[in-house]
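Handout, page 2. Input:
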Amino acid sequence: MRVPPANWTHLALSLLSGLLMALSDHPLHLAWLQAVAFLPWLLGMARLCRGLAVAALGGAVLGAAYLIPVLWQLEFGWLIGAAFFGYGMAFWALLSLWIFWARQRNALLWALSCGGAAVLAEWLNRTLVPVWGTAQNFVRVWSDWPGAVQFVALTGMLGVVFLLLSTQALAVNLWLRRGRPLVQAAALGALLLSAAAYNLAAWRTPPVGRLTVAVMGWDDSPDTRPDRQDPLKVLRQRILPYATQAAADGAALVVAPETSVFADGPRKAAFLGGLDLLAGSTGIALAVGLFDRENNDNRLVWALPSGERIAEYRKTHLIPMIETYLPGDGQRVTLRIQDVPVGGMICQDDNFTDLSRAFGRDGVQLVAVPTNDWHAVKRFHLDNSIFRAIESRYAIARAASNGISVIADSRGRVVGRMDPEFEGAGLLVGGVALYPGGSPYSHLGDLPVLLISGLALAGAALPRRRPAPR
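Output:
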């Protein structure tokens, strides 16, 4: 059977879009390419594609070109990698089917429904297959350009998805002269100007305070990993020197990585007593990741110079099939350090938005995030972690083992970062600007963007009205 040349061209354009998406992600991390990456694919869908089967194949080609380099970096192994590869190709194929089917509808509604369909697909992606939550979202790379995505404090990450797909579909309409050019141009301008105006206003908001914080970071090796079974050894050899240095540098809080120690019973009591003594002697607050063997859960423990005992937070979101201990119940822990409202979560927790949005509603201005990554995922996880800060308007103090330690403000501006894989174990100290905690997204979540997307999809799905016969 002879394949029409237009179909081959469409598949080539889909491949080009997939390659541009791959370049937007790690290792090159050229996030700005996503602002144009979908143009070839959408152009082929709007003008060249002939049939649903070819549309689905084009989406699968895009997905394959994007996913192969990403999955290769993540080192998942053949079985898990193949599962994610097939799932990702199906994701893009189904999205392509909608875009092809809806192209005969009103041009403006088609463009908006491209964004709406992508939003719905991404929301289902992280809701039905919540392995890494929003870290599965392709727009995670935009945390490297925080000035361009301040509007996620209003829309969440799905707002970036809607903006990217809708604006590029509108640009395709203008190029192909689909619909009324003035209407397409007005819609394109309205979307871009609205996002730019919010970005500018949020970026220029003056801070209300400042706090100096510190985060530790190290790489665990087979030689050092057994040390975590001896909490007092970790306290003496790791936490004490770094906490003392942080206090000397003027930090009010120092954060140690997730599961810095494993302890139960008397060992845990002795470790917590040592932390209290250290906090009292240095005048610095400490937040330390501890695995509680007795209760079989992952915790964040606090020690304050005042000696006040703070409740221990239990990690809520666990990585399926990898973390098999008991999850927490989502009960948040908040406290005040130098009159600044502070909260805490652990690693995988920041791949989801329930805790971060709740901290925003609580008015928290700084969140400690002890983390334990592995080298293959650390850059992808960090991208996503910074989005939580921008969405709910709080600063983060992220202390990582086998990952990247970071201090960032609520605008997503990184004050300092440290990668122990290349720099060795160490301490990062920085002053972070504080802004009023909370945002519209903290209160409304994804509902506004989902409603707008639903309306766009419904509008595009309605049959076109034919003019009445004269």
